[in-house]
Amino acid sequence: QMRQSGSWDIATSLGNEILAKYSGTPTAARVQQTIAETRAKSAAIADSHRLARLWTYTVTAEDGGTQYAAAIATQEPLKLANARLRLVLRQHPKWGQSVYLLLDNATFDCNGGCATLPVSFDGARAQRMKATIPPTGEPALFIDDDKGFIARLEKAKTVAVGVNVRGVGALDAEFEVGGFDAAKLPNKPKT
After folding, report:
1. Where would I find the H helices in the chain?
2. Taking the mean position of all CA atoms in its chain, how far away is CA 166?
3. Which of 25, 58, 135, 185 has the fewest CB atoms within 10 Å, measured from its CB?
4. 119 and 161 Cβ atoms separated by less than 8 Å
């Protein structure tokens, strides 16, 4: 019944219990026929929920309208105390759509150049994408081709971006983006 209703986590739990407590019975034999598929579906759903929880969505009132943003932090923390790197997709009423990397409690080191960043989707060979530090000097690094980046991100499970961070050096920041929900941004990202 749990399998038929799509309750894969409960079906897995019940199936495991039947196999453990009632091994060798006809019921256990029937459960054994479908337990691998049931476990796989339960694990896939759990991973899908985990990936979705990695994203944070915000709605902020701004002059001229509302700003919507989706943000995700790197898989691994930076090697600086309290430093954090996030990937942000933003829809701003005045500035439009943006994709940028945002550092908290650290700064990008562009002495060696930040004009292009190596970006890899799902472990494919990295391609160089133009990037810009805003004139305001914020701890942000904008990826100029926001449309191309979002189009690839929507199909990807992971994105890795090579950056230089002052005090850390060169690093490949990896983001598990598979749980991105474009519907949470009211204006479908322009790709």
Report:
1. 2-5, 8-21, 26-53, 146-153
2. 24
3. 135
4. yes
pLDDT, residue 51, reads 94
pLDDT exceeds cutoff 90 at 52: yes
Q: What is the pLDDT of residue 187?
A: 76
Place of tokens 């005090």: 167
Q: Is the pLDDT of residue 84 over 90?
A: no
* pLDDT over 90, % of the chain: 69
> In a 10 Å sphere around its CB, with 0-12 CB exposed, 13-18 middle and 19+ buried, how is residue 33 labelled?
exposed
DSSP three-state, residue 167: coil
- 166 near 109, Cβ under 8 Å? yes
Q: How far is it, in rounded angstroms, from Cα 28 to Cα 6?
A: 20
Q: Name the H helices within 7-62.
A: 8-21, 26-53
* Distance from C-alpha of 75 to C-alpha of 102, rounded to nearest angstrom: 14
Decide the pairing of beta strands 55-62 and 65-73. antiparallel
Q: What is residue 113's predicted lDDT score, i.e. its pLDDT? A: 66
The values of phi and psi at residue 105, to 5°, are 60, 30
